[in-house]
Amino acid sequence: MSAKKILYLPRILSTGEKGIFTALFFVALLSGALFFGKIYLRLTVPMHAIGGSYTEGILGEPRVINPLFASRDAERDLSRLIFSGLFTYNSESGITGDLAEKYEASEDGKIYTVTLRKDIFWHDGTPLTADDVAFTIHTIQNTQYKSPLRPNWQGVNIEVQDPLTVRFILRTPYAPFIENLTVGIIPKHIWEKITPERSLLHEQALSPIGSGPYRFNEMRQEKDGTISWYRLSRNAKYHREGPYLASITFMFYRNEDDMFSAVRTGKIDGYGPISEKFITHINKNTMSVHAAEMPRIFGIFFNDQKAAAFLEKPVRQAIEFALNRDEIAKQVVSGGSMPFAYPLPGFLKLHEQNVPERAFNTDEAKRLLKQAGWTDSDEDGILDKKTRDSKTKSLRQTSLLFNLKTSDWPDLVRTAEIIKAELQAVGIGITIETLPFSELEASVIRPRDFEILLFGQVYGHEPDPFPFWHSSQIKDPGLNVAIYASKKADRVLEEARKSNDPAERTAQYKEFETIIANDIPAVFLYSQTFLYLLPNDLQGVDVRKLSLPSDRFNEVHMWFRETKRVFK
Q1: φ and ψ at 172, to 5 degrees?
Q2: Are the C-beta atoms of 210 and 184 separated by less than 8 Å?
Q3: Does residue 315 sit in the same domain as residue 218?
Q4: 517 to each of 129, 230, 302, 332, 343, how far by Cα in Å?
Q5: pLDDT in tens, 494-524
Q6: Residue 92, domain CATH
Q7: Residues 518 and 543 grouped into a single domain
Q8: Terminus-to-terminus CA distance in the chain, angstroms?
Q9: Neighbouring residues of 213: CB distance < 8 A, sequence distance ≥ 6
């Protein structure tokens, strides 16, 4: 039938026939569309596309956005997006190149040679070279800049081999050194003109130039100097895949109540960590909580130099039996806490068939104390006994009454209260003293001025217990707050940090845990999980293991909200 005859059809068809013809025409059209649509879907796959934005709430605000000086979570978060390191960690805590294309380590573990990627640039278009890497490390090592990272780089020399090659020479082998190479690199051509005195006040402190996936765009600073929000835009010349989100905005809050309200009103898209009390109130159709394991271990540390009763092993054993880890972890208000009884992080997988934990058992705690001669002679609810003074050799009445010091952070305050109640049940008295973290660090932790310290130990992706447990670290600035000295433990820790063989280090760490379990210089209570509230349409997020909260942005360049279809 010719086109002319088809056009003539409407004149000869009845009204009913016209309706049937029109319906058949649209059915054929729809069928064709569905057919070709199915073909298109079979031949194509959805892919992330550039576009969309994300807004996150953060507790506190930044003062200096620079990886060399960042000390607050807000500062570390922004630094992670704006600056790149030689290496970074993926969601499985595996090391991967960022600015670095490859590296080689010498057989003796003292020399690391790193080769940079070609054609990498700062946000202002200036090429990034090995000179920038060397300048960054020299700045950290310079005492005038007062970088908190300086202890990590003592005894390390840096040599620039050529524009793309830099060599790190260590005084002694240090297996976890690769984690040091994740520090953000700063631009020499900018910072070499800024004196140490101006480093925290210069405009680069809040409007920095980096080489990361996102670059500074704009911020709002109030009249009193506080920052209410901070916006980043994608780096179109980023040296790795992506980034896909067009922009990321951070809004700063003083408390979680305000942040959760901002989520419910749509002012922000997400935040972390979220407390469990809020999780039950989220809209699960639009929001999800991502749980990330963190190597943070909280416990109580004994100081037998301040409280001689801790020299008796039965007392330390009894305290461990008297504490209910399950109940303590359940009561931690910020959520994401798990009962944990070991000195090293769970992701090392050391604990299966290794050291059995001392389970909660008040009867066993009471038996141990009674067997050691502790009784309630004055019926005041606190056990006591006559002990001999180590200096005067005279007998004196000693009570199991201890002062526990900790931070005024709500989680630790609540934990301290539970510890007090549970130890009271077996005849051990506790008084609680809480201090702001800065004061706790200066007047308690550094001078080791405590009988019991409730605190946490934070490990990196390459856990090294040496700073926390080696006898050389007993005095400040060492982190051995338990004032623990053991020749066996020292030997194992020294060997472990020198070994480049993961299997050998694992065996040494297992031996170390056995030593600690036998000596009981501390009682470990719980570890934390980072609970991250995010919108369901934000894709590409994979945050299974974090060392610091800012690690959630290690693969932010792969996050996306927009998609497109491409042919297979």
Answers
A1: -135, 155
A2: yes
A3: no
A4: 48, 47, 14, 24, 9
A5: 999 988 888 899 899 999 999 999 999 999 9
A6: 3.40.190.10
A7: no
A8: 40
A9: 81, 84, 234, 235, 238, 240, 242, 243, 556, 557
Q: What is the pLDDT of residues 100-125, one digit of tens each?
A: 999 999 999 999 999 999 989 999 99
Strand partners, 562: 49
- Provide the pairing of β-strand 165-170 with 156-162: antiparallel
* Amino acid found at 388: R
H or E stretch including 40? helix 15-43
Half-sphere exposure of 329 (CA within 13 A, CB side): 17
Which pair of tokens denotes residue 200? 């925290």
Reported as a single tens digit per residue, the pLDDT across 53-76 is 999 999 999 999 999 999 889 999
Pairing of strands 214-221, 227-234: antiparallel
The verdict on 104 and 241 lying in the same domain is yes
Which CATH number covers residue 472? 3.10.105.10
Same domain, 241 and 331: no
Integer angstrom CA distances of residue 566 from 44, 52, 243: 5, 19, 18
On whether both 356 and 247 belong to a single domain, the answer is no
- Residue 65 · residue 82 · CB < 8 Å: yes
Are 338 and 220 members of one domain?
A: no
Instruction: Give me 280's structure tokens.
Output: 């039950």
**Residue 395 pLDDT > 50:** yes
Pair 56, 248: CB distance under 8 Å: yes
Residues 501, 490 contacting (CB under 8 angstroms): no
Q: 522 - beta bridge partners?
A: 301
Of residues 74, 60, 57, the one with CA closest to residue 269: 57
Domain of 111 in residue numbering reads as: 53-269+538-567
- pTM here is 0.83
CA 408 to CA 440: how far, in whole Å? 9
Could you give the residue ranges of the DSSP H alpha helices within 290-376? 313-322, 325-331, 362-371
Strand 53-59, strand 247-253: pairing = parallel
* Number of structural domains the chain divides into: 2
Does residue 475 contact residue 315 with C-beta atoms inside 8 Å?
A: no
Reported residue count of the chain is 568
Same domain, 482 and 550: no
Are residues 65 and 208 in contact, defined by beta-carbon separation less than 8 angstroms?
yes
Q: Are 483 and 304 in contact (CB under 8 A)?
A: yes
